[in-house]
Specification:
Layout lengths: L6 E3 L4 E3 L4 E2 L14 H13 L4 E3 L8 H10 L7 E6 L6 H15 L4 E6 L8 H14 L2 E7 L3 H11 L6 E5 L11 H8 L2 E5 L14 H11 L3 H9 L5 E3 L6 H8 L8 H10 L4 E5 L3 E2 L8 H6 L8 H9 L7 E5 L6 E5 L1 H11 L4 E7 L8 E2 L7 H13 L3
Parallel strand pairs: 3-4, 4-5, 5-6, 6-7, 7-8, 8-9, 9-10, 12-14, 13-15
Antiparallel strand pairs: 1-2, 11-15, 11-16, 13-14
Helix pairs in contact: 1-2, 2-3, 3-4, 7-8, 12-13
Length: 401
């Protein structure tokens, strides 16, 4: 394998770096945090200097403060940077999308956005309404290109058809050694349409990979190439030239580490070895064995009532599941010395699944500490029952990565 090259969107005459910068947590997660503003601005600028010139953010990150920090970081250097941002699912109606875009433009301190995309699909709003706003924004020059974030394969196909003739050169999805579900349908489709996957959480938000029996292969390869485990993982993920990564850099040394990934040339045998060791492990886990922690809904009744006003609601997402628009698997962690698990990501998806198939059903999940799992079955195990067969088909056809 040759060194990792920039990605070219020939029809759009656009070149993108293979590695950009993600900003989830910069300026706060879902509330504003100004405590590290100068540090974050300096880090973003350092990343730009190192060639990490694609920056992805969202209106929800830090309640808009992330976009403000990105705007401060690119001031005076706008033409060197490709900006990607996202509007929230609750802002999917035509007027809401346009208002959200105007607010993002103001926070970013620019008069155009390179890639603009819905953060998540909203089943309660016909996509025709969302598409109308995106078309207006493209025609006005305020948005150069439209993307789709966290859309299932089926949803993305429907959205592309509605947006036509406006092209969709970017599909944003999670992609890492644990969650490889885009490899089934979404990544091949991007190759066919000459689009690219903007891959978030490539290092599992700093967790790299669980410390299970497979990690040793990464450590051996890191020694072989005289690189870090993080760099080996990113180089493997970038083996497909339809993929662009947006890890978050936290320090100058971390950003330098990310920038050096493009110099790595993994041998084909090593790529295959990682692929074989990290075959996807999606399990079906009884909902009744999963413990819910933290805020949000704690009972099925609370989720059904949607008293917190989540949009789309758990019930609307449950209908999406029943319609075959499969939500991506949740993430759970094994509780030592028990047969239980704790939910680490995907609380609304958990309740959507429970509403769709009831609390006594099972849910597709990525399980941390997989070597300890003994009481659940993988999706490749042969099972009887219409629900499980339906789940298998849904995962094959339309799981979100």
């Amino acid at each position: 394998m040759s060194k990792i090259l920039p990605r070219k969107l020939n029809e759009q005459a656009l070149t993108l770096p293979a590695i950009g910068q993600g900003t989830m947590g910069i300026g706060g997660y879902y509330e504003k945090d100004s405590s590290r503003d100068l540090e974050w601005i300096a880090g973003l600028r350092r990343g730009i200097d190192l060639g990490l010139t694609l920056i992805d953010t969202a209106e929800v990150y830090g309640a808009g403060h992330s976009e403000e920090l990105v705007g401060a970081a690119i001031k005076g250097n706008r033409e060197k940077v490709l900006l990607s941002t996202k509007f929230s699912a609750e802002h999917s109606q035509t007027s809401q999308v346009i208002t959200a875009a105007e607010q993002s433009l103001r926070r970013l301190g620019t008069d155009y956005i390179d890639f603009y995309q819905p953060h998540w699909p909203n089943p309660s709003v016909p996509f025709e309404e969302t598409a109308e706003a995106l078309e207006i924004l493209v025609q006005s020059g305020k948005v150069r290109f439209v993307g789709l974030s966290n859309f299932s394969y089926k949803e993305a196909q429907q959205a592309r058809a509605i947006l036509d003739p406006i092209p969709v050169p970017m599909v944003q999805q999670e992609y890492n050694l644990i969650d490889r579900t885009i490899e089934d349908r979404i990544l091949p489709e991007c190759r066919n349409t000459k689009a690219f996957v903007l891959a978030y959480s490539p290092l599992l938000q700093g967790k790299l990979v669980p410390k299970d029996e497979r990690r040793v292969i990464l450590e051996l390869l890191a020694k072989k190439y005289e690189r870090t485990v993080s760099q080996i993982i990113l180089a493997w993920l970038l083996r497909d030239d339809s993929v662009v990564m947006i890890p978050k850099g936290t320090t100058s040394s971390h950003l330098e580490e990310l920038a050096m990934v493009k110099e790595i040339s993994l041998e084909l045998a090593d790529i295959q070895q990682i692929s074989q060791h990290y075959e996807p492990r999606i399990f079906q886990v009884p909902l009744s064995k999963i413990r819910i922690q933290g805020g949000g809904y704690r009972t099925l009744q609370e989720a059904q009532a949607n008293c917190l006003g989540v949009n789309p609601s758990p019930e609307q997402l449950a209908q999406s599941i029943l319609d075959g628009k499969m939500l991506k698997p949740i993430k759970i962690k094994k509780i030592a010395a028990t047969d239980g698990y704790v939910l680490t990501e995907g609380k609304i998806r958990f309740w959507a699944w429970a509403l769709a198939y009831d609390i006594h059903s099972s849910i597709p999940a990525f399980v941390e500490q997989c070597s300890e799992v003994r009481d659940i079955e993988t999706l490749s195990d042969r099972r009887e029952g219409a629900t499980f067969k339906s789940l298998q088909q849904s995962l094959r056809d339309s799981v979100v990565a």
